[in-house]
Amino acid sequence: MCRDLSVKCLPFKLLYLFSIRPIAYLVILLISVISIGNSQTVSLDTLEARIKKHLGANQDSFSFYINKYTQDSRQSNNPKLYEAKINYFQGQHASKTNNLSEAASYFHHALLLEFHDTCCFKGTVLNQYLSNITKVDTSFNIDAFLNGEFISSKMRLDNNAKANMNMIAANFLRDNPNYRNYDLAKTYYEAAIKDAEKEKLSLQFYEIHLAYYLMLYFQEDYLGAIEIAKKRLEIAHKLDNNYIIAGSLFDIGLGYKSLSMYEESIKYYYQALNIWENMDSDLETAYTYNNIALIESELKNYDNSINLFEHAAALMDNFSGEIHMGNRARPYLNISRQYVLLDDLPNALDNIEKAYKIILEDDNNEGLKYIILANMAELQSRQKRYSEAEKNFKLCFENIDKLDKNSEKRSLYLDYTEHLLRAGNYQEAFKYCQKLQSLYGEDMDLESKKRYFASLKNYYQSKGDFKSAFKYLEMETEVMKESLNFSKIESVKTAGLKYQLQKQKSDSEIEVKNLEREVENNKSSLTQRIYLLLVILLGLSLIGIYFYFKDREKNKINAIILEKNKYLNEVNHQIEASNHKLIKLYEELSDQKLKLESELKSKLLYISNRNKVLEKMESKILSLDLPQIEKRKINNLLKSSENNQLYENVEDEYLIMNKDFVDILLKKYPTLTPNNVKLCILYKLGLSNKEIAQLKFTKTESVKVAASRLRKTLGIENQDITLFAFLNNIG
Length: 731
Description:
Elements: H1 5-8, H2 10-17, H3 22-38, H4 44-53, H5 59-73, H6 79-96, H7 100-112, H8 121-136, H9 142-147, H10 149-153, H11 159-175, H12 182-199, H13 202-218, H14 222-239, H15 242-258, H16 262-278, H17 282-298, H18 302-317, H19 325-341, H20 345-359, H21 366-382, H22 386-398, H23 406-423, H24 426-440, H25 446-462, H26 466-523, H27 526-623, H28 628-638, H29 641-657, H30 659-668, H31 674-684, H32 689-695, H33 700-714, H34 723-730
Helix pairs in contact: 4-5, 5-6, 6-7, 7-8, 8-11, 11-12, 11-13, 12-13, 13-14, 14-15, 14-26, 15-16, 16-17, 17-18, 18-19, 19-20, 20-21, 21-22, 21-23, 22-23, 23-24, 23-25, 24-25, 25-26, 27-28, 27-29, 27-32, 31-34, 32-33
């Protein structure tokens, strides 16, 4: 619909003005009259501008434009959107006039209206509502809101607007201390990324990733932050926006710096630096030089770090735009710290004085001002300018509440204590040590503890109390050891992170190269794109051919594998058959051995029985009435060498057959004599004392004595254990 018909319909009127049709002329005349009346209508855009101009001003003038906006918005095809805007403007007006409860009510009403939104207006409303409601309602339940009204407020929104809403909810959960929930914020960031991906909205996509990166970085999830920053870099390349490309590179470098992966960090910093220098972005260039200098300082390259800090300071000094004095002062503070590390106190003091002179011009950065002043006082003290140092330290203590962090306050106490010790004011130094312990004793880091114990050591040493001084020296030493162990643990953690990131490095480089190629392709002409399409088609064909041949090769490999498996199965069957044969052979050999042992035992028993018969014959011969010489001849004939030879042959057979048993026996009991070994063999075969006595042509009592000695040699103390059982357990 034309908002100014008297202008926009002019060509149409002129066409018919000179027409010969009088009816058309009359119609056009009537339209012109209506158009002249409507030409006085102010456009909705102009009305919005006027409403914004009168926000927080006179209620009457604000209400006049709101009413006019309400009347004109009724002609719109999206009346709910304009109703929401009216509530939004009324909420802003109430907020500017400090009616926060009323403002929250207007924003809430605007948020719950359903309308089609493609310009992220709902996100702006949500931001204002959360900002106001949390100030007036301390019992506001963010979980209930997100699970209820927030979901319904996203109805009819396009993906762009939904992504914006999810990002604002995530930012609120990230930034508001009373409602902070990083895990839930992560969920909403990821939902925002998915919504933005559906529309391929690169700029919105970049903003979400930036907000997500900041949350992960401040959570100290540096690996996650680096991953998100690399995704931002991909988006920045697609946008072909050098400024945000450099910003993404800078943030990746910052993540690596936080992980102490300095080589990777410097690489990304210098990439960002080249872009910013080409764009003449002096301020960003200065920040990058500053961060590279901090790395050089960590690496103890102090000359390099001083040069880089000085370069950053010069860029900030010459910057023509607006810049916080704190940013201008920081490089000089860092330069001063480098000179302290080099033990060049005059230059350190000169630079800290420059930093203090600059920061005095900034009334909005009191914390940094007193940090710089404390550093300056500490350097003045080390230069033995005690009166100036005392004055500046006192000024710092008067404004200690302006220091944001406990670590800064703790450092001030330590610096002042050390100053008092240098100045010889030992009693006052001891008082400040006690104050430090009472205020921050439980919150001291390792470096602060070391300085604290060193101060007490110096105090007691000055008083001549060497026992107490030695006690605090030991405590200082323990802290130094703990600090060393902590450094080692951190080194191990860093090494682990380096290993994880190294695995991602090659993939990231390939992705960057692909992105660079994609940017080149986007810049090419239509003809080049056609060629690219042909190349892609050819590539797909080649891929198809490749996969075809790959499948064929795969099938061949599978066939070979099957063949090999078949062969291996046959080999396994052969091995199993061989095992069965070996087991059978072993069983047969065992049976043979048992049989042979049985035969040997039978032979021995035979010899024993034979000897028994011979003994009886001997006794009968002795009872005969024959000459003594004849009796001896007969006895000698009975105990012939043939009989002994038979016994020895049986022993030899057993020794050959049971060589392993004899070897084991002699290894365990090396003191055994050959006769002991033979006696062991007889007992192992199961012969009794009586049978052995008969076998050896001796008395049973003699065998028992020999058996008793053998038991002692073998260490058998338990009389219940027989020699037969004991020897069979050995072999």
